[in-house]
Amino acid sequence: MTASxxxxxxxxxxxxxxxxxxxxxxxxxxxxxxxxxxxxxxxxVMLQQTTVAAVKPYxxxxxxxxxxxxxxxxxxxxxxxxxxxxxxxxxxARNLVKCARAVAARGGFPAEEAxxxxxxxxxxxxxxAIAAIAFGRRAVVVDANVERVVARLFALRQPLPGxxxxxxxxxxxxxxxxxxxxxAQAMMDLGSQVCTAKAPRCLLCPLSSDCEGREKGIAExxxxxxxxxxxxxxxxxAFWIERINxxxxxxxxxxxxxxxxxxxxxxxxxxxxxxxxxxxxxxPWGGNPEGMWAGVWEDLGAVRHTxxxxxxxxxxxxxxxxxxxxxxxxWWPIERLEEAGLPTLYxxxxxxxxxxxx
DNA sequence: TAGTCGTGGTA
DNA sequence: TTACCAAGACT
Length: 358
What we know:
By secondary structure, this protein is α+β, with helices and mostly antiparallel strands. It has helices spanning 2-16, 36-46, 52-65, 69-74, 77-84, 91-106, 113-117, 124-133, 144-153, 164-174, 180-193, 212-215, 344-355; strands at residues 233-245, 248-255, 266-267, 298-306, 311-320, 330-333. The termini are far apart. It binds a DNA duplex through residues 43-55, 86-92, 95, 120-126, 129, 141, 143-146, 161, 184-185, 188, 191-192, 197-198, 228-229, 231, 260-263, 275, 305-309, 343-345. This is Adenine DNA glycosylase.
């Protein structure tokens, strides 16, 4: 019975696999290409908590700019962070560089799940996925799609996260010896296109005749998840400091601390807002906005942004100065602001500031 | 274990 | 508009 589940799923995958830039066609031998594990690894890291549609342009840009893991290992971390801007979860980008350098130093990716698991940014899911997809190893690959499909297939009513252990056991039981990589990707394709979180399309499902959840009429309600906490509302202020330099204008950018929210990313200076606290309203280099440059501030309005665990209303104030703002930072030509790699929050603020200009 | 950490699409 | 959520890792 368990063997027939993987057979039915692989048959479905052979006919319905999505064509993706990082994907080997179903049933095809592993590519004999030194960059193949690199491309699998890069795609898997990018796909962590991130949709296929969002990843595609970043994957194309990264592989065009850094075709091999050695190229990425040699890149300045700042360049990689800037290239990652907009994709979110920026600790992934920091770990990406660490991992690339570790892999380049050891002469390639480990082919076994245990070796992969020791690399920065590779947890249980990603190491299993790379072992199976890039190297053809039998590995039990469990992501949110697999959790959903398995919970429904076996009518597992226990709520998450407690259900993780029985889910893993069931996933282990249906993972085939051969084509484990295709099987993993088939489970994820099924979860994203057929066995979806809302309104599963059981009529199209190759496993519907095996599905206990469907039989019992509870598939759509599974897996049971804990209620989410409400996001707090936060307020903060960012500062758009501009100067004229020759023919062009420049804006003062800072770099955020390496850890925490938007860690390591370029940003506008702000008043110290965080997911836990409102900002002070004061500029970071000392004094309140009415002090040092009394009267020079122009109120540009505010942008809204939602993070994983907070809503933020970020007010924006503008000043044009001739000296230096003080503190660490750099003047950045506004003409080339796209290249600064601002995360989306500050990209929104920049659009607001520039919409008010000229 | 539970909290932290982005973003954009969708209903 | 709001709430959910997507190929999770780390602490």
